[in-house]
Amino acid sequence: MTLDQLNTQSIGQLLPLLQGLYEHSDWIVEQTLARRPFKSFEAFKHGMIQTLQHAGESAWLTLIKAHPELTGKVAIQKTLTAESQSEQQKAGLANCTAEEYEALHSLNKAYQEKFNFPFIVAVRGPRGLGLTPQDIIQTMQRRLKNTRDFEVQEALQNIHRIVELRLHEKIDRKSPEGDLIWDWQEALAQYTETQDLNFKNLTVTYLSPAHKDCAEFIAERMRECGFDEVSQDAVGNVVGRYHAQDPKARYLMTGSHFDTVRNAGKYDGRLGIFCPMACVKTLFSKGVRLPFGLEVVAFAEEEGQRYAATFLASSALTGQFNPEWLAQEDKDGISMKEAMAAYGLNPDEIALIKRDTSQYLGFIEVHIEQGPVLYNQKRPLGLVTSINGSRRFIAHVQGVASHAGTTPMKLRHDAVGAIAELALFMEERALKDADSVATMGMLEVPNGSINVIAARAHFSMDIRAPNDAQRDAVVEDILNKIKEISERRQVEFKLTESLKISAAPCDTQLMKHWQAAIEDLGLEVFSLPSGAGHDAMKIHDIMPQAMLFVRGLNSGISHNPLESSSSDDMQLAFEAMMNFLMRFRPS
Ligand code: GLV
Ligand code: MN
Ligand code: MN
User: Fold this and answer.
1) Which CATH number covers residue 100?
2) How far is the CA of 500 from the centre of ligand 3 (A)?
3) Which of 115, 138, 170 is the last residue of a domain?
4) Same-domain check for residues 289 and 147
């Protein structure tokens, strides 16, 4: 079916073709068709989502209950619609082991009992190739813990995904570049510092062996894509350049990071490297040269995991690499300087990679949203308006060790008590603003004993807000609280500020290009700020920047192995980026 057909044929002609998109609920298609014309099938999809949204809870429940139980009684009796049956077969549910079958059955039963509707999951999964029975069992176990309201929404999310896949089959819509980008991320996730062979625990910190493997993988793929130059720079960034027609033309820079947090998702950062790589692959294969050069930077460090020097890779490009960072040590006492030497990098060359801004037109970055906004909005792409500013502290508190049984409560100088009080104050203070956040992500009592009052604790603080003044006000209140706690409890805090980065509003001109790129897909533009930090906010110091967000699944969870995104959404990100590149003209 073509878009023209969708917009011009009678509803009577179209309904048989679109039958079964929503399980036993063709009214959703019918009501949506009444609002034609649609600019694209993406817009039609969103139209159907809105139709259901407006229909309200009782319609949602009727739709949810119209779905078969996974491998349940209904499935065995073969009363599934043809679509449901083939989906369940694709997910490998026909071939599950007796134990898996049992587990699915008992989880199904528990789910039905708890929520009074069947468990619904898009069994073809984010890549469309099918979840394994194990994936489904784990998803069921996780979702069983949710509230009913949450599960109603989760069921609808999965239904819309099922419909998306069914529609794509009907219109023969493929996501070749989205699939490639997704597969690249999957392949890159094989490199991890941890020993978990099923890749579930992904950790890639700066200059680790896994980090080096990642850099080589990216460089190799860049060469295959048709980049004219691929190299690794003095801090380990992998830089690919696709030349313009005119060798003197300036460059548009894009990219994101390939280091990860500990036990990370597979998409944070990496999507923003592979998306432009797929664009270059396409441009090169078609022999297209742009009126500007494209520089894709796979940033080596953004997360601040191994060393406190966060954003060190982008700081090197802005000329803000602080040579004192080289003395920082990781948890094993290896200095950054030593790690660089072992990796084969020369710190003396770092100053040379500072970019000459007269050669650049700006910076754009594609990134998974890492939050629930697009997911809840049921929108695949979002236009970023600004990136929240942040400050980070590495700290410790010194109290006095003494006997847990004999020291009266009033005479203690307990490091843990002091930290506990501080952690709760951080929460309370951030909550006072609608959109500030404060996190104590690291907390350790070195050499603690069960019967000794803690003498010492190490901890971290990460404070963020949409603008610097708001962020600094939170920090000030926290520092005052620390002073108050230390006087009252007679403990000593020592703080080192490891990061202070300004909020970065995105450039209005570049945002307009992203906006048009999204509209070219027939999608409404939805704008949102970024709560997470990004390479773009450091590059912001020397050139205009603008970002595109891609929806994350599982309510947008990130910095967590459950981080996920579909290859179809990645295809849209690729297409939006291609639109951006084809529209963008140096002024
Ligand atoms: C980067 O992921 C951050 O901490 O926002
Ligand atoms: Mn991250
Ligand atoms: Mn990131």
Assistant:
1) 1.10.3330.10
2) 17
3) 170
4) no
Q: Does the beta carbon of 440 lie inside 6 Å of ligand 1?
A: no
- Give the CATH number for residue 516: 3.40.630.10
Ligand 1: nearest atom to the Cα of 269: 2
Look up tokens 């590059």; give the residue. Answer: 539
Burial of 423 (0-12, 13-18, 19+ CB in 10 A): middle
Q: C-alpha distances in angstroms, 71 versus 115, 154, 464? A: 18, 19, 46
Tokens of 242: 């696709």
Residues 82 and 122 in one domain: yes
Which residue matches tokens 């982008």?
Answer: 314
Ligand 2 midpoint to CA 268 (Å) = 6
How much of the chain, in percent, has pLDDT values that exceed 90?
91
* CA–CA distance, 436 with 374 (Å, rounded to integer): 20
209 vs 489: CA distance, rounded Å? 44
What pTM, to 2 d.p., does this model score?
A: 0.93
The least confident of 190-204, 337-351, 482-496 is 190-204
Residue 272: CA count within 13 A, CB half-sphere:
31
Q: Are 270 and 386 in contact (CB under 8 A)?
A: no
Residues 322 and 453 in one domain: no
| Best CA proximity match to 533, nearest among 372, 296, 393, 367 | 367
Partner residues linked to 499 by β-bridges: 392
In the predicted structure, residue 277 carries a pLDDT above the cut 90 = yes
Residue with the smallest CA separation from ligand 1 atom 3 is: 533
The pLDDT tens digits of the residues spanning 351-362 come to: 999 999 999 999
Compute, in angstroms, the gap from residue 115 CA to the centroid of ligand 1: 36
Strands 527-530 and 381-387, by their bridges, are parallel
Indicate if 373 and 411 belong to the same structural domain.
no
Pocket lining: 303 vs ligand 1, CB cutoff 6 Å: yes
For residues 446 and 416, give the distance between their C-alpha atoms in angstroms, rounded to a whole number.
11
Same domain membership, residue 280 and residue 194? yes
Q: State the amino acid at position 236 in one-letter form.
A: G
Of 466, 501, 536, the residue that ends a domain is: 501
CA distance 328 to 304: 12
How many separate domains does the chain show? 3
pLDDT of residue 74: 41
Asked whether 532 lines ligand 1 (CB < 6 A), one says yes
Say which CATH number the domain at 463 has: 3.30.70.360
Compute, in angstroms, the gap from residue 373 CA to the centroid of ligand 3.
16
State if residue 533 touches ligand 1 by the CB under 6 angstroms criterion. yes
206 and 191, same structural domain? yes
pLDDT at 98: 83
Q: Which two tokens stand for residue 119?
A: 């468990």
Domain encompassing residue 14 = 3-170
Same domain, yes or no: 490 and 528: no
> For the chain, how many helices (H) and strands (E)?
21, 16
Identify which ligand lies nearest to the alpha carbon of 462: 1
E-strand stretches of 7-140: none
Residues 557 and 385: their CA atoms lie apart, in Å, by 21
The answer on 160 and 215 residing in a single domain is no
Q: How far apart are CA 343 and CA 337, in angstroms?
A: 10
